[in-house]
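Notes from hallway chat w/ T.B., transcribed later so I don't forget. T.B. wanted the structure written out for a chain they're using in a teaching module, and asked if we could keep both sequence and structure tokens in one place. Agreed to drop them here.
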Amino acid sequence: MKVLPDFLSPQWLLHQLQISSVPLRATALDLAILAGHMLLYPSGIADERRIDLPLGAPPGGHPSTGLSGPPVGETLGAPFRNPRGRSLGHPRAGDSTGDSTGDSTGDSTVEHLPPPGQGHRPVVLLHGFVDNRSVFVLLRRSLLRHGWQHPESLNYSLLTCDIRAAAELLGQHIEEICARTGHQDVDIVGHSLGGLIARYYVQRLDGDRRVRTLVTLGTPHEGTQIAQLMSAHPLVRQMLPHSDVIEELHKPAPGCRTRFVSFWSELDHLMIPVEAGCIDHPDLITTNVRVSGIGHLALPVHPVVAAAIRQALDSSDERATGSVESVLSVA
């Protein structure tokens, strides 16, 4: 009886079929997520709406919404202002993001949030290029469900043309959030370009004094060759390898206090090369998490990634510097 070589055995062939099907499944999942996101996209165009509680009322809103304090302000692509005085007490019909603003002050079932400055620090959620806050609907709900009282989904304008300017405006929003919630610092979760904007704020604009942990999802920390396809847009040009912004992020950052956790996927078709999603900097406290089995669009919505994000935000990593590599499988 002739014995097949190991590399032609049924077990080996089955294993190869399983391996080859992973990219197909990841692509199919990304397409399904894209279709669902297109339906949610209109609900995220406007900024989050919040109510101004009467003076002396307990801080916070209903825990199912995580709404608290005055409105966050304008989008990151427009001059920041705090629009107090607007009527914000009525939810928008058909808002599917869970950001409605029902009045909590007369509801006996309301569980008030902790006093200002207590509980989990606020988490700022920052979307990617040509996207909006609706991409974080599932992650935001996951954070609320597990005890985070202040997830803040911010928008920046489609007209944004400079990562540096967007980072400056992000800093203004974070100052407002800290003043409103009573916390001295925040955490940030940025998807794709949002992570690059947040990193620039932390590393180049002294944002490390306000940001304890920055989590990035599919962010082109080393730039990506795919940006050449849309290089007519100035913001996209800044995501090219060796752009001025990328080179600025390579500069020394001694004493940076923020912890960086970068989730990158080996099946992320927007990262060329895929390792561009890793942070490699000698002065930064970094953890690079290789995610297997999903692509770019699934990173902010997959429940396994959401659980890992919550764990990263809860971590008490006290390293002074250095890099850690880990693997997260969702297959």
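Follow-up for T.B.: The beta strands are 123-126, 151-154, 186-191, 211-217, 259-265, 285-292, 322-329. Might be a good example for the class.
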